[in-house]
Design a protein that fits this description.
Number of helices: 15
Low-confidence stretches: 407-412
Helix content: 55-70%
Shape: globular
């Protein structure tokens, strides 16, 4: 391979890595904006812990658990290539990864993905989870569960041999986080005041919708790296197609959610519009490289409709998800994965059934592991803060500080 092409490929992958890293800013802004001021420090602390802890865990053993080097004859379920990472022979040359990137770029790009699953859970459990319990859950889930599931497809495991397809992680990242969020929300219970005595949901408005809007726009920008980098090279044709399908699905998702929510609730709900954009992004992620622009618009638009219906269903089930993480990442993650069997280059009954099998197997594994981890924490350390802590805010009780210091001068 030409040295210039190898360099161009690697540079694009490093740019994509930076964009995925920047997504954590978007997640933090979105979660802060859609929750109350009194829990801002708590949310920021969780998000920073996820990035730092996630990267160190991925370095220590996650990467080698996710890419263990399954050999012919392996069951393709579980294998471990050892602790720590070191570049193999040829890892810095075009002989590695078909010249798409170097070993170190590969590790860092994949490491940026690893923390995303726990970030999804953070939003769903906001404002009432004990931070110590959340950190222990994050360590186990990001350190073990995510890499094991990732190995089944991206690491060349049994789902890969079956033909299961997930380009950039509608299931392997978003649903993995979404299933854990669903279990966590069910075990935690709703925030105080979320449901009235008649059982009807009450809105608990976020304290900074402009910040939430900025968060969504940052996430959309970051998705250029999330999906665009998943081409695993700077291939001009495929990378540009992926960026187009990603953007069109996002735009269509926003429109789908805004139109349906307006019809159903007779108001122009910005938060539904924003979550529709994210739903479209999650929905296209499994097949962004397989779809035409027209198909991307359809997939995104339907994801936007699903957001509105899923939010209503979650309320009906008496589940409290402050940021809509379950609707966005779980429901649209499932939809996007199944859409690979309905649209694009791989569409067909056989592929659809393979996609459905993958969703079911990964869903079952994530539910069971989440129940074990969170159930154990609930029985020992406890999951939920006290009523007093929840009412007064986690910032003061768990961190002893306020996100917005009062600079008003004393009146004399």
């Amino acid at each position: 391979m030409d040295a210039g092409l190898f360099t161009a490929n690697n540079v694009w992958m490093m740019v994509a890595t930076a964009l995925v890293f920047f997504m954590h800013t978007g997640f933090a802004f979105l979660e802060i904006g859609l929750t109350r001021q009194k829990n801002t420090i708590n949310i920021l602390f969780k998000n920073i812990f996820i990035i730092t802890g996630g990267l160190l865990l991925y370095y220590a053993f996650g990467f080698n658990l996710m890419y263990p080097g399954f050999e012919d004859g392996d069951a393709g379920i579980l294998k471990f290539a050892g602790f720590g990472i070191g570049a193999p022979e040829g890892g810095m040359t075009p002989d590695y990864a078909d010249g798409g990137y170097t070993w170190w770029t590969d590790f860092l790009f994949q490491g940026m993905f690893a923390a995303t699953a726990a970030t999804i859970v953070s939003g769903a459990v906001a404002e009432r989870i004990k931070i110590g319990s959340f950190m222990i859950f994050t360590v186990i889930y990001v350190g073990l569960v995510y890499p094991i599931v990732g190995a089944w497809k991206w690491g060349g495991g049994f789902l890969d041999s079956w033909g299961f397809y997930d380009f950039a992680g509608s299931t392997l990242v978003h649903s993995v986080g979404g299933w854990a969020a669903l279990v966590a929300v069910a075990l935690l219970g709703a925030r105080i005041g979320k449901f009235g005595s008649d059982g009807k949901p009450k809105a608990i408005p976020g304290h900074n919708i402009p910040l939430a809007t900025a968060g969504v726009l940052i996430l959309w920008l970051g998705w250029f790296g999330f999906n665009g980098g998943s081409v695993l090279s700077a291939d001009p044709e495929l990378t540009s197609l992926v960026l187009v399908t990603t953007s069109l699905a996002a735009a269509a998702g926003g429109f789908g959610a805004f139109i349906l929510s307006t019809i159903l609730y007779k108001n122009l709900d910005l938060t539904m519009f924003l979550n529709g954009i994210l739903g479209g992004l999650v929905g296209i992620t499994a097949g962004a490289d397989l779809m035409s622009p027209n198909e991307a618009v359809v997939i995104g638009f339907l994801a936007g409709l699903l957001i509105v219906l899923a939010v209503a269903l979650i309320d009906k089930l008496k589940l409290d998800d402050p940021v809509g993480a379950i609707a966005v990442h779980l429901i649209c993650g499932i939809w996007g994965t199944l859409a690979v069997g309905l649209f694009g280059d791989k569409a067909g009954v056989s592929q659809f059934m393979t996609q459905l099998s993958g969703v079911a197997i990964i869903g079952g594994f994530c539910i069971v592991t989440s129940l074990i981890i969170l159930g154990t924490l609930k029985a020992t350390l406890g999951l939920r803060v006290s009523k007093e802590e929840e009412l007064e805010g986690l910032d003061i009780h768990e961190h002893g500080m306020d996100a917005y210091a009062d600079f008003r001068m004393n009146q004399h």
